[in-house]
Specification:
Layout: E1 2-3, E2 6-8, H1 14-21, E3 28-31, H2 36-41, E4 49-59, E5 66-75, E6 81-89, E7 100-105, E8 112-115, E9 118-121, H3 127-147
Parallel strand pairs: 2-4
Antiparallel strand pairs: 1-2, 3-4, 4-5, 5-6, 6-7, 7-8, 8-9
Helix pairs in contact: 1-3
């Protein structure tokens, strides 16, 4: 069900994550802006086509509450991930770190994980593997939340 840019999870929230991992949910592709080097030399350099995904998913109260936010930017030709961020946000579980219960991103020049306000550097294998890890961990938090 689509409502004003926010996807509300059906009874199977895993479908959204699986579709992201397969690249079906890419919303926007665009050509990169020309580099200064190519402009200065007068030559036209073929710029990479970039894929951008940016969406948030609301988790209803009866399913565990909170919000999932996933963003990434990657080179469509090479598959190289330029930037990414994924977070399970629920301020009732985690009052610190802007409510980020669990999250992964590569901001600040390194790949890292946020876990209840704790910053932990991580090894990056692929966007798909990171999505799997993220999905497993936020499912654990949802199970814990529903069991209370």
């Amino acid at each position: 069900m689509q409502t004003s840019g926010t996807l509300v999870f059906s009874s199977y929230p895993d479908r959204a994550i699986r579709s992201l991992a397969r690249g079906r949910a890419v919303r926007d592709s665009y050509e990169a802006i020309g580099s200064n080097m190519a402009a200065k030399k007068g030559g036209k350099k073929k710029e990479p086509r970039l894929e951008r995904f940016d969406d948030s998913f609301v988790i209803p109260d009866k399913k565990g509450n909170g919000q999932i936010r996933i963003q990434y930017l990657k080179n469509a030709e090479t598959g190289q991930v330029i930037t990414y961020s994924m977070a399970y946000i629920n301020a009732t579980i985690c009052p610190v770190d802007n409510g980020r219960v669990i999250g992964y991103d590569n901001a600040h020049g390194e790949h890292h994980k946020h876990d209840m306000g704790v910053y932990v550097p991580v090894e990056f294998e692929s966007l798909e593997r990171t999505l799997e890890l993220f999905q497993d961990q936020w499912h654990q938090y949802l199970k814990l939340r529903k069991s209370k």
